[in-house]
Amino acid sequence: MAATSVANTPYILKTLWPQDRIEAAVYDDNPFLAMVPKAEDFYGENMYVALRYTDVNGRSATFATAQANKAPHQGVRFLLTRGHDYALWGIEHEMLLAAKRDKGALVRSLDTEISSALNALTNNLAMVLYGDAAGIRGTLSADPGTGTTFQLANIGDIVNFQVGMKVVFAATRVAALRAGGARTISAINRDTGLVTVSAAIDAAVGATDCVFAEGDAANGGSTILPTGLLGWLPTTAPAVGGGDSHFGVDRSPDPVALAGLRIDVSALNPEEGLATMLTRLDREPGARPSHIMRNPIDYKNILLALGTKVETEYMEVGTIGFEAIKVRGPKGVVRIYSDRNCPQGRGFTLTMKSWKFHSLEKAPMVIEADDQKLLRDAAADSFEGRMAYYAQLACDAPGHNVNETLPA
């Protein structure tokens, strides 16, 4: 067997991380990302998704009236553009040389670096698919002053942060970033939602500021990441004259058909909330809910509420499986899944067939368009590997889906 070298390392990479292993690692522990239908068809500059939200108006029990009122159906076309994300990893040249006599050492080192980069990219993609393209990882509950800590308003959002991450702040989801640059997270309290950073926070940061990973924020411009569930099913209904423009469509003429249902069940117990939401969705023609996504805490509340009546089922997606709670609604069985990426206090009831995750080839993928899986760093004695995805989430029937406000 040939000694390990820079020249043959790409072949080790291809064997070590084939695309099917990447997909298995991506879907594990991320139910919505695993189950949403996918299409590797997003070629070209953009893509249209058409939606008819009214029928023809030429109908009446009186023929003359039907003829007089004859008018075409109403429809819209969402003009999708791709969002994108990257993860880079590296290995020192010295490591490559040292491993010439020990192929196993190099394999272990490569495996660690690649799996870590893939995990970072996957975690962000799974989070993004619940968001609105802004990349918000959490919001503040209080003015941090010029201290070195900030408190998250929703403790459950702590899953979106890790030690070493660089974060920035903005007043709103697309506002210009606050002054002072990025701060590096040095400590996290996952029980209280308190985050410690390496340097004093700029005085301009306010009590309700949004927190982003560096490089993700719109910073007063356009969003970069794919649009997720909160983008398609906003918590606040688009209002007439409110300037709504979702992929070029003003959704205010019919906020339910074009931007989904918004149902507040925060004053109800979990069983009543489920019944209320499923019954309301039953009123929408064509809606056939199949999946309910909940944060683990909210999932637990359903388990406790159902008690001995709970009925579970193990659902497989390829080689990955997820436990689901089965409930019966007006249109049949609906399955509830626990997904750590779903924001705590918010749930999504989905007609899954109305969704599709369109990507430009694989998502994620190892970048190797030039057949080079490792690139020489220009300014360091090391080599670099790259992963990315270019994709967008689409929905051709928003009105068949629900954004739920759950008990705090």
Overview of the molecule:
The protein is of the alpha+beta class and 408 residues long. It folds into three domains: 9-131 and 360-387; 136-213, Elongation Factor Tu (Ef-tu), domain 3 (Beta Barrel), CATH 2.40.30; 229-357 and 395-405, hypothetical protein PF0899 fold, CATH 3.30.2320. It has ten helices and 21 strands. It has helices at 9-16, 19-27, 31-35, 63-68, 93-98, 103-128, 229-232, 255-259, 270-282, 296-306, and strands spanning 38-39, 47-52, 75-80, 83-92, 136-139, 149-151, 166-170, 183-189, 194-197, 210-213, 261-264, 291-294, 312-317, 320-329, 332-338, 346-350, 355-359, 365-366, 375-376, 382-395, 402-405. Strands 11-21-16-12-15-14-13 form a seven-stranded mixed sheet. Strands 1, 4, 17, 18, 19 and 20 form a six-stranded mixed sheet that branches. A hairpin with a 2-residue loop joins strand 14 and strand 15 (332-338). Helix 2 (19-27) packs across helix 6. The relative contact order is 0.19. Residues 1-8 have low confidence and may be disordered.
Q: What fraction of the residues are assigned to beta strands by DSSP? A: 25-35%
Biggest pleated-sheet summary = 7 strands, mixed
Low-confidence parts: 1-8
Helical run tally: 10
Shape: globular
Mean pLDDT: 89
Radius of gyration: 24 Å
Structural class, judged by helices and strands?
Answer: alpha+beta
Query: Order of strands across the widest beta sheet?
Result: 11-21-16-12-15-14-13
Total domain count: 3
Query: What is the total tally of β strands?
Result: 21
> Which bin fits the share of residues in helices?
10-25%
Terminal Cα separation, in Å?
60 Å
